[in-house]
What we know:
8% of the residues lie in helices and 57% in strands. By secondary structure, the protein is mainly β. It starts with a helix and ends in a 5-residue tail after the last strand. 34% of the residues are buried.
Amino acid sequence: xxxxxxxxxxxxxxxxxxxxxxxxxxxxxxxxxxxxxxxxxxxxxxxxxxxxxxxxxxxxxxxxxxxxxxxxxxxxxxxxxxxxxxxxxxxxxxxxxxxxxxxxxxxxxxxxxxxxxxxxxxxxxxxxxxxxxxxxxxxxxxxxxxxxxxxxxxxxxxxxxxxxxxxxxxxxxxxxxxxxxxxxxxxxxxxxxxxxxxxxxxxxxxxxxxxxxxxxxxxxxxxxxxxxxxxxxxxxxxxxxxxxxxxxxxxxxxxxxxxxxxxxxxx
Length: 267
């Protein structure tokens, strides 16, 4: 059986299993997944994600330790975001390289909101900043700044919550890069939700060009603290630099009342 057929079979089995498990609240994309969703923290609330992310292939590994993702709610439908990872990169036969990678400040606007049972749609423009000269020499960053223009959509499909994101990286010079993410999952209890993600990252005429499949979720540890976890692998793509394993393991901290209280205060 080919890798692609195996991936399709795994997706079908996992989605069917999720669909027949008991459901509680809504499951969403966003961390730990690569795909974003239209959700925002709520006015005056913070969502802080601190994690370790990995992309490992034969002879090459990249670790983001830490991956910092700060989100602040400005009104009920707007989110201000700042993301930046510290990257440690290893390559067989070469010295280990490390440094701060490209930052991603941005703003999300959920311009359509029909409630949890209806359609929700957002735009999430972000600017990938130019990395430092040292990080560029070590190839830890993209060579120049890029604009990311994605659209996020979420809707219920029977018993499943389905999130989709499509977007384009547009650099000042160089090739465009297209992203597509699809997440299907559900909450299994008031503490645990699980979801399956299919994600494609494709540049025009140059790496990357890869599709990954992963399973992840969230577990509520206490009010304001949520464990994030995801693990998966590539199912197709370029042979050069294709990650055989991807992972994300971290903690989500929720603060309300402009950061003065621990716990949720919005959607």
